[in-house]
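Feature request disguised as a bug: please show the residue count (166) next to Membrane protein in the output. Example input:
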Amino acid sequence: MPAAAPTGRSPGDPASPPDDTDRRTVLSGFLFGCGIAASMIDLLVFHLGLQWHHFYDLSTTEVALAADGVLHAVGWFITVWSLFLLADVRRRAEVVWRRWTGAVLAGVGAFQLFDGVIDHKVLGIHQIRYGVDLLPYDAVWIGSALVILVAGVLVLRHARPVPAGG
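Example output, currently without the count:
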């Protein structure tokens, strides 16, 4: 295994190289966005508030509610995990909040896009709502997911760190 490139840090220094810190910042924000989209936007608004659908609508109400509970638990696990990553980034270096915010937007958009395309259309495990023409709902769901995802990617690109020496 080749030796690691020298970083100029002492062996006990916990600071990460800048590219590792940036990756951790982006991963933390992306996971936070996914977790919030799953637990707050999708579950609280559409599953519990509006009661338009459950995570898994192809079985009994009891199974649908249990599936909602699993999705809720996983969504919060991802959210908390992202905050531990963020705390680790803050411990190692200053957080570039614009990068983190862009990653949060990208995470929300990616989750909503995955849900709208894969869960709703490919797997068909639930629809946005039932008993209505789905086209306007799908267009708004997938369209808004794309807009949020693109906005996040644009913020990430605009806030990209400048490489050392250039």
